[in-house]
Amino acid sequence: MMKVLAIFGTRPEAIKMAPLVKELGRYPGQISCRVAVTAQHREMLDQVLRLFEIEPEHDLGIMQPGQSLFDITGRALSGLEKVLREEQPDLVLVHGDTTTTFVASLASYYMQIPVGHVEAGLRTGNKFSPFPEELNRRLTGALADLHFAPTARARENLLLEGVRRESIFVTGNTVIDALLGTVSGDYVFTRPELKAIDHRNSRILLVTTHRRENLGEPMRHIYQALREIIESYPDVRIVFPVHKNPAVRSVVDSVLGGLERVHLTEPLDYQPFVNLMQKSYIVLTDSGGMQEEAPSLGKPVLVLRNTTERPEAVDAGTVLLVGTEREAVLRETRRLLDDKDYYRGMAEAVNPYGDGHASRRIAEFILYKYGMTKIPPVGFGG
């Protein structure tokens, strides 16, 4: 039996790794899957672990108030050395582009343990956008042995960087697996402010912003555009789960605080959040994962960034890269609110990111590469 160790540390990683951990548990005679978390994010990580009923074998608990990238990197590297020496896994699985992902890959390399990179091959081409994620995923790609690319374009990015074709497998994105297993048509919100919204007769704009490169004036410009929208469209409501970063909150409160039909909430757990997305009309975000999730629910996405590592969605027409300038955000939001045909074109475009079976494909590829099956798996998209 091969031993697989899944390592992650943040809520987005946990959401995308949870269905894979569950899938690997379906092969008890062939794979033993154990979990280590750095808890780079604590509270937001824990609620995902509870939702998917995952109890880590190792929890480093590294999060501290005011932590810097230096703090996260140092504590994670030191803690993971001990975990890897104890576990001695045959394969370490990491996800995406967090500091935990890069550090876990580096620690595994120091121990000469193979690494499988889930959601491999995403690139913007600008090492400072997003920061530090772009370099985290590039460096992880240089250290990884197996590359689970969500799309054919991600595979091409890896090939251009010299990665061996036989080590790359196109799987779709595991976030779609998590999403489709969590959204429910009869979901009832427990938070009073969400429960009280008339979802049937309101057009809801779901907003999230958190990127470091958007702090300050870029965010202010976004919120000014949203203020104009709420003042111009009586049937529109904004629901904005506000990031805990004080630098985000201060700008949100100064521009949008106290406005009628603007609901500024605490960050939502994953289950109510994706069910809120299901009930929304438009999604405006600088998040990476929401560019994949919302199109699966038929929701147009306006990406509040100047670059994206997910150009497939732009090409497919499910998302639009609008940047952070007030006029651009205002113009494109108005267009979706005013032009039903344009809205329908984005809402009904085919999501290029998956079909809910990415975790199964990853498990099958691992079994095949480690000689536990002779049947080569079929990748996403054939």
TrEMBL record:
Ubl conjugation is among the record's keywords: no
E.C. designation(s): 5.1.3.14
Swiss-Prot/TrEMBL keywords: Isomerase
The keyword Lipoprotein is annotated on this UniProt entry: no
InterPro entries referenced in this protein's UniProt entry, alphabetically: UDP_GlcNAc_Epimerase_2_dom, WecB-like
Residues of the UDP-N-acetylglucosamine 2-epimerase domain: 30-366
Gene Ontology MF annotations: UDP-N-acetylglucosamine 2-epimerase activity
PANTHER family in alphabetical order: UDP-N-ACETYLGLUCOSAMINE 2-EPIMERASE
Homology family: Belongs to the UDP-N-acetylglucosamine 2-epimerase family.
Name of the protein in its database record: UDP-N-acetylglucosamine 2-epimerase (non-hydrolyzing)
